[in-house]
Amino acid sequence: MNPAMRRSPETPVSRPTARLLAAAVGALAALPLAALPLAAAEGGGSDGLPQLTQTDTFVGQIFWTIITFGILYFAMSKVIIPRIGEAMEERQDKIDDDLSRAEKLKRETEQVIEEYEAKLAEARGAARETVREATEAWEAQAAKREKKANEALAKKTAEAEERIAAAKQAALDNLKSVATEVSTAASAKLLGSAPSEADAQKAVEASLAEGGRG
Amino acid sequence: MAEAANEAGGGFPVDPLKQFEIQPIVPINVGGLDLSFTNSSLWMLITIGAVTALLTVATGRRALVPGRLQSVAEFFYETIANMVRDNVGSEGRQYFPFIFTLFMFVLFGNLLGMIPTSFTFTSHIAVTFFMAIVIFVAVTAIGFARHGLGYLRMFFPHGAPAWTAVILVPIEVISYLSRPISLSVRLFANMMAGHILLKVFAGFVLLMGVAGVVPLAALIGITALEFLVATLQAYIFTILTCVYLHDAIHMH
């Protein structure tokens, strides 16, 4: 009806300016909302901002806002939000569950390691004990054998000494009798008369004793 | 005749305001009220359809390790849940479904409006003001329900000298009453201005011939910016609702 009043931007306007203008227009128009029907009546419907001039659509816009927003609110609050919430809760539960299970497993592992170490220490102790016992037993046996060997040796030595002593004695006895015989025979040859055996023996013993001293 | 002059005499090739015109699709008249199903109603339906479809598909297969869509749904959920918790507190929990719906409704309304030839219902003051006034009335009702007449202390800062009430109370009352206006006009004006700007630059592209690449480049930038504005304004609208709720519940 009145196209000359149509706001057709003919000069390039910078964006902030346009923003400000639009905001100002909006604010000015919105403030006296009650005066809108009046302005619309003056504007005649097709001029200016349709937002402000198409007042006959206001009721319909509000009506459809209520309907669509209501449906969306119902869908969100009854279906979507519980579903998202549930999924997130489930995940949180699962994470908590996994964490606690990991914790439990870790504790179990630690326990097993502890047990293992205790067993290891025990085994080491047992091994040491076994070695010690074996060493002791071996040492005892060695000592016993040594003693036995020493004894046997001592016995053999004693026997040998005995034998030597006996042989020496025998040799000495032999020597005595030979000496007596010789001295008797010598005396008989020299003196012509053989001394009695007892005298000869006495003389030999005396000279042997002298020789032994010397 | 002026119309003809506009068309023929080097007039602007694009009418930047035509996109805001509401056209009835199915005329409905109930008791003298015009409740026609219009392009605005259509895009409201598409908006709630898109939101519902996206979130239904996204939450269809509730996987422990969320897929892409499920991550998107959970991102929206967590963003709004954090917003409500940070701005309203634990008492805000019961209002979470409303805040969530509000955010999705405005966000998708804004974003779907970026589709060429679509209709942006959030660029209409009737819609934004209605939403703002409902929020305003509800928040005020919650305030009085929680604090009784003590809610009127909202209008006088705690600890100020008594005589300053003469100045402070009117200021506070005006600032409180202007909330629905600033809330609705901010969204409506931002969406409208952005869409006008897009059309104006598109007109320049047509007018300038080869030199039109310059406004075309600007147009691409502005389009990107408009996506940011669409998201940001939905966020602001929602977070301010949370702030008003906080005031009603905690009184500053």
Topology:
The complex is a heterodimer of chains A (214) and B (252).
Chain A: H1 15-30, H2 36-43, H3 50-53, H4 58-191, H5 197-213
Helix pairs in contact in A: 4-5
Chain B: H1 2-8, E1 24-26, E2 29-30, E3 33-34, E4 37-38, H2 39-58, H3 68-87, H4 96-112, H5 125-147, H6 165-177, H7 179-207, H8 213-250
Antiparallel strand pairs in B: 1-4, 2-3
Helix pairs in contact in B: 2-3, 2-4, 3-4, 4-8, 5-7, 5-8, 7-8
Task: Please describe the structure with a list of short key phrases separated by commas or semicolons.
heterodimer, A: 214 residues, mainly alpha, 0% strand, B: 252 residues, two-stranded antiparallel sheet, globular, disordered N terminus
Protein architecture, described:
The complex is a heterodimer of chains A (214) and B (252). Chain A contains 5 helices and no strands. Chain A has helices at residues 15-30, 36-43, 50-53, 58-191, 197-213. In chain A, helix 4 (58-191) packs across helix 5 (197-213). The radius of gyration of chain A is 70 Å and the shape is rod-shaped. The model of chain A is unreliable at 1-15 and 24-46 (pLDDT under 50). Chain B has helices at residues 2-8, 39-58, 68-87, 96-112, 125-147, 165-177, 179-207, 213-250, and strands at residues 24-26, 29-30, 33-34, 37-38. In chain B, helix 5 (125-147) packs antiparallel against helix 7 (179-207) and helix 5 (125-147) packs parallel to helix 8 (213-250). Classes of the chains: A mainly alpha (214), B mainly alpha (252). The interface between A and B is large, with 60 and 68 residues.
